[in-house]
Amino acid sequence: MDLFATIFVDGLIYAAWLFIVSVGLTLVFGVLNILNIAHGSLYAIGAYTSASMVGAYFGVGGDAFPWGSYVALIAAAILVALVMGPLLERGLLRFFYGRDEVLNVLVTYAVFLILEDAMKLIWGVNPYYVYEPYTLLGDVELGSLFYVGYDFAVIAIAIVVGLAVWMSLNRTRTGKVVLAVIHDPEMSRTMGVNVPRIYLGAFVAGAFLAALGGAVTAPMISVQPGLGVNVIIVAFAVVIIGGLGSIPGAAIGALMVGISRAASVHLLPEAELFIIYFVMAIVLMFRPEGLFAKTQARKI
């Protein structure tokens, strides 16, 4: 019984931060129709920036109020979104809207490579450790199992993020405008909607979610070069399983990947990486467009 509980909780923890990253990726695709490979680099920049800001916070006397390090984590994600979002969307991607999907993938892949080298120039190649926020919430006992409280805080953040994104799209006026742009940007433009502003806002929101995923996981891992590569590969698996552009699909996909990975780690460690793509292959065999793919209008 403890083994199944361990698999479930470990899978939930892994799925939580993965969902935060994946929902940003699927949001950008849903609005801009661009599969943004550079999303992984935004995650890594968020992790590096949060590690630097938390380190600076404790370096100037933050030990007197360690809880302020959580503010530094969120502030790092906001900073990355406000700087990198407009820079990439207005400075580059807007010139490729409506172009071939393969070209867009190549452009974002080029950005990904540039940002990976830029991070090495800025932060070097040595790993960063920012453990202080991870220890503040103590331990949580679940029967005979013990977990770090911070892990459950990440689950709570993922739930809040999912509800916030869903509510913003489905229960607000701005969200209705975004959905209109998703379904028909040309008609939305003729109705007076500022489509470029919607694109910019969606990309900044996606960049914030990527950076937030990096910020909340920075205390849990070693922040080092190559971080974005691993994340974007798994995030792609999540959004493909759930369906590109689907918020509920990102949640279900993250849960499937998280629990299957946890089961593999505990039962068959050799298949840890294989199991993620095995689950993706099984889903695509029966649902080639993903579990919650957007309905495509049939052209006559």
UniProtKB/TrEMBL annotation:
Keywords: Amino-acid transport, Cell membrane, Membrane, Transmembrane, Transmembrane helix, Transport. Its main location: membrane. Signal peptide: none annotated. Coiled coil: none annotated. CDD domains: TM_PBP1_LivH_like. The keyword Transmembrane applies. The keyword Signal does not apply. It is a multi-pass membrane protein. It is found in: Cell membrane. The chain crosses the membrane at residues 12-35, 42-61, 67-89, 101-125, 145-166, 198-221, 227-255, 267-286. Belongs to the binding-protein-dependent transport system permease family. LivHM subfamily. This is Branched-chain amino acid ABC transporter permease. It comes from Thalassovita aquimarina. The lineage of its organism: Bacteria, Pseudomonadati, Pseudomonadota, Alphaproteobacteria, Rhodobacterales.
